[in-house]
């Protein structure tokens, strides 16, 4: 679990995470996400980095404009909560293309085929140093040489750069976007080919 400073009396900041419902508009659709900070903490709120990832991500560029098969993951404790948000926001005819599946980084990776995913999106997942090795192991397992990873994050601590350095040993990494107002970075990563390492 992450330690996040919080002041309940603050007018801005983290108090928005205590609202039971967050409403957003994306691509002419209104999305309402239930939040439950008290029950699930950081796993059940919408963080700023997702907006930047969404705004910079163009489904057409990845051949996804007609709808892709999507796997949405989280730890077991948050799965039912995640499923309810997916069901509440996806039209019934699209829901079969979205699978909600348990994933704890570095654990039970055999439930996913190696290199199974063409595109992996992650928002605000770089924050807890003790998870960095497991996150890297998970990305290595899920990616083929043709997979692309897009990670949106704030660099909150100097240690967050440690993950990026670890990632660069196995992946070619480039920063593709930075919002100085929100301090959100978006990195693109692709697995290094063997020839690159020689």
From TrEMBL:
Q: Where in the cell is it found?
A: Cytoplasm
InterPro entries reported in the protein's UniProt record: Methyltransf_16, SAM-dependent_MTases_sf
Q: Which GO terms describe its molecular function?
A: methyltransferase activity
Keyword check for Transferase: yes
Question: Which GO cellular component terms are attached?
Answer: cytosol; protein-containing complex
- Reaction(s) the record says it catalyses: L-lysyl-[protein] + 3 S-adenosyl-L-methionine = N(6),N(6),N(6)-trimethyl-L-lysyl-[protein] + 3 S-adenosyl-L-homocysteine + 3 H(+)
- The entry's keywords: Cytoplasm, Methyltransferase, S-adenosyl-L-methionine, Transferase
Q: What is its main location?
A: cytoplasm
Among Gene3D superfamilies, the record links this protein to: Vaccinia Virus protein VP39 (3.40.50.150)
Q: Which residues form a coiled coil?
A: none
**BP terms from Gene Ontology:** methylation
Per its UniProt record, what PANTHER family does this chain match?
Answer: HEPATOCELLULAR CARCINOMA-ASSOCIATED ANTIGEN, PROTEIN N-LYSINE METHYLTRANSFERASE METTL21A
Give the family from UniProt: Belongs to the methyltransferase superfamily. METTL21 family.
What this protein is called in its record is: Protein N-lysine methyltransferase METTL21A
């Amino acid at each position: 679990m992450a330690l996040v400073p919080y002041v309940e009396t603050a007018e801005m900041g983290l108090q928005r995470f205590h609202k039971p419902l967050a409403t957003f508009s994306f691509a002419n659709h209104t999305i309402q996400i239930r939040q439950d900070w008290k029950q699930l903490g950081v796993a059940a709120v919408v963080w700023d980095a997702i907006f930047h990832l969404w705004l910079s991500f163009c489904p057409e560029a990845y051949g996804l404009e007609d709808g892709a098969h999507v796997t949405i993951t989280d730890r077991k404790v948050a799965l039912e909560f995640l499923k309810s948000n997916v069901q509440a926001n996806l039209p019934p005819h699209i829901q079969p293309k979205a699978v909600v599946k348990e994933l704890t980084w570095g654990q039970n990776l055999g439930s996913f085929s190696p290199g199974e995913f063409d595109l992996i999106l992650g928002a605000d997942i770089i924050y807890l140093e003790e998870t960095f090795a497991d996150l890297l192991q998970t990305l290595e397992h899920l990616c083929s040489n043709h997979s692309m990873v897009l990670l949106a994050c704030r660099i909150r601590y100097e240690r967050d750069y440690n993950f990026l350095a670890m990632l660069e040993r196995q992946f070619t990494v480039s920063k593709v976007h930075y919002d100085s107002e929100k301090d959100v970075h978006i990195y693109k990563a692709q697995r290094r080919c063997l020839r690159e390492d020689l």
